[in-house]
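Batch job 17 of 40 flagged for manual review because the log was empty.
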Amino acid sequence: MIVRIMGEGQVKLADSHFAELNKLDEALLSEMERGDGPGFRETLHALLEKVRELGTPLPDDSLEPSELILPSPDATLEDVRELLSDGGLIPG
């Protein structure tokens, strides 16, 4: 799956990693619902770092369609609320 981190670029990520990422996504959703700004920020950074760690960066000039778009590291609670689906940022 091709994942875009807004403002950074794209990475190719194996589907087998999504169970691990979904745990962070669920925590992020919970923190957003509680309005826990510091927890949200920490979990967002952990989620993005995990995507960077597990994914393979695509070249900057690559224009692959992104199947998943994640917010930038400096996104606010409000920014992320606009991106959310019923199940969080990551499907499944």
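Reviewer: the log was empty due to a logging misconfiguration, but the result itself is present. Helices lie at 18-34, 37-54, 77-83. Unflagging and moving on to job 18.
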